[in-house]
Design brief:
By secondary structure, the chain is mainly alpha-helical. The protein has six helices and four strands, in the order H-H-H-E-E-H-H-H-E-E.
């Protein structure tokens, strides 16, 4: 089964909440409250996302975290790669893979098929901006502080 890790899923939820904040900042506690992700996990993910250049950390009285770029300029692929590394179905098609990475490469009948599938998944995730999966829901449409946690559309791949 191809599945994103729970941390990557949480990172997308956190980034979606930051996208909803617009150009403002949210503290780690704000993000934990809005996303229902535990505070230690939010803090850990914000550090990782900051290292990857997806989140900016602001100090001071009005400090917190904000997106490093607009949500439409951040692809889901960037988020996945920041937390999980290169997007590849198998180690033999991973960018920069060593020849004979798995020991079967010389006789493997499947390798030629995995590369285009991996590229298709990479392309789909690169073409999916964070902004396209952020759905805004709130109890009071005019009162953003009462907003529910951000819903993230489930990503699915269809091979035809």
């Amino acid at each position: 089964m191809i599945r994103l890790s729970k941390l990557t899923d949480y990172a997308i939820v956190i980034l979606a909440n930051l996208a909803r904040a617009g150009e403002g900042t949210l503290t780690a506690q704000d993000l934990a409250d809005r996303s229902k992700v535990p505070l230690p996990t939010v803090s850990k993910l914000c550090k990782e996302l900051s290292k990857a250049g997806l989140v900016l950390s602001h100090r001071g009285r009005h400090g917190g975290y904000g997106l490093a770029r607009p949500a439409d300029a951040i692809s889901i692929a960037e988020i996945v790669e920041a937390l999980e590394g290169p997007i590849a179905l198998t180690s033999c098609v991973e960018p920069g893979a060593q020849p004979d990475a798995c020991g079967l490469e010389a006789t493997c009948p499947a390798k030629a098929s995995w590369d285009p599938v991996s590229r298709a998944i990479q392309g789909a995730l690169r073409g999916l901006p964070l902004s396209s999966i952020v759905l805004q829901h709130s109890n009071e449409p005019n009162d953003p502080k009462d907003a529910d946690a951000v819903d993230v559309v489930t990503l699915g791949a269809h091979v035809s």
